Amino acid sequence: MDRENMKMITKICYMYYFQDEVQTKIAKKFNITRQMVSRLIQKAREEGIVEIQIKSPVKGISELESRLESQFDLTDAIVIQEDTIDDEQLKQKLGYAAGEYFLKSVMSNMTIGIGFGQSLEAMAEYVNHGAVSHTIQGVGLTQLIGGLYSNLSYENSQYIMSMIGKKMGADLHFLNTPFLVEDPAHKEVFVNQMATQNVIKAYDALSMAFVEIKPADQVYKTSTTKESKFGKNYLNALGISYLNNINAEGEVCLNYLNDRGQFIETPLSDKVIGIHHKQLGKVKNLVGIVGGENSHQIAMSAIKAGVFNTIITDDITAQYILDNV
């Protein structure tokens, strides 16, 4: 490129990028077409005459989100900065990100499934204090798993749903059953009730669902197993050794995932009352929340499962997924 052409291209780029001149005005000054101006600007970028740098403090986060979306065909990836905060703070921060995404995504007449967990409680708190458009109407919230035997607020799906529902004016569809029964025959009694049937049928037509992706060895109190030596009732019917033998890595509403991202049927499958993994795959936008150093492998399994449309995680976990899948 001769000196005169170099000078003209440089001047055009200076006017465009530094003086914010429109391409039509630049074309008139140099007596060329607007299309020619556009081609010369593109040429300057291709030949390194112009270099564009993004110096935003969240540039790295945006790159991680874009890479996750592209590599794993996700509708959305929401990545937060881990900031070396403790596990409790991280779950809250993930929940606030989920709340922001909820408010951005919710539309009239949506039916939205709600799981349970600390991040989902934080999501509900965020929504409860957020701004909701009055034009959004007819939203329904559906409980994804029966009631847990717990005094912890974040393990109470109905409490979480009620916080969101009060703010949204949403219809609440509760699953008024225990999450686990001792005998499959007892499950049939609950499932055959009309109210329960209506909730379970709704799982096949959910617009969105928000769930936490938890470790496979997560334990929940239950009234169906004998007291442990610690004096507490825990869901230990399977046992950690069994979960290890089937390579169980994580669970979503008591649906177990192995380390290859495959959902596994277990002896508990016929006793759990809630959404089945095949129904999770039918959700139009299944939003999974997972994060923290101890959740790296769990997040990998979730990504491999291919049922999640949106992942909300931290930057360290996101980088681990991209480096290891």
In short:
The chain folds into 2 domains: 3-46, Homeodomain-like (Arc Repressor Mutant, subunit A, Orthogonal Bundle); 59-324, Rossmann fold. Helix content is 43%, strand content 14%.
Quickly list its features.
Rossmann fold; seven-stranded parallel beta sheet; 13 helices; alpha/beta; 2 domains; Arc Repressor Mutant, subunit A; four-stranded antiparallel beta sheet
Descriptive report:
This protein is of the alpha/beta class and 325 residues long. It has two domains: 3-46, Arc Repressor Mutant, subunit A (Orthogonal Bundle), CATH 1.10.10; 59-324, Rossmann fold (3-Layer(aba) Sandwich). It has helices at 3-17, 23-30, 34-46, 59-71, 87-105, 118-129, 157-168, 184-191, 194-202, 240-245, 277-280, 296-305, 315-324, and strands at 76-80, 111-114, 140-143, 171-173, 208-212, 214-215, 248-252, 255-258, 263-264, 285-289, 310-314. It has a seven-stranded parallel beta sheet with strand order 1-11-10-5-2-3-4. A hairpin with a 4-residue loop joins strand 8 (255-258) and strand 9. Helix 2 (23-30) packs across helix 3 (34-46). The longest helix has 19 residues, at 87-105. The chain is elongated, with a radius of gyration of 25 Å. The model is unreliable at 225-235 (pLDDT under 50).
Strands, helices and their partners?
Blueprint: H1 3-17, H2 23-30, H3 34-46, H4 59-71, E1 76-80, H5 87-105, E2 111-114, H6 118-129, E3 140-143, H7 157-168, E4 171-173, H8 184-191, H9 194-202, E5 208-212, E6 214-215, H10 240-245, E7 248-252, E8 255-258, E9 263-264, H11 277-280, E10 285-289, H12 296-305, E11 310-314, H13 315-324
Parallel strand pairs: 1-11, 2-3, 2-5, 3-4, 5-10, 10-11
Antiparallel strand pairs: 6-7, 7-8, 8-9
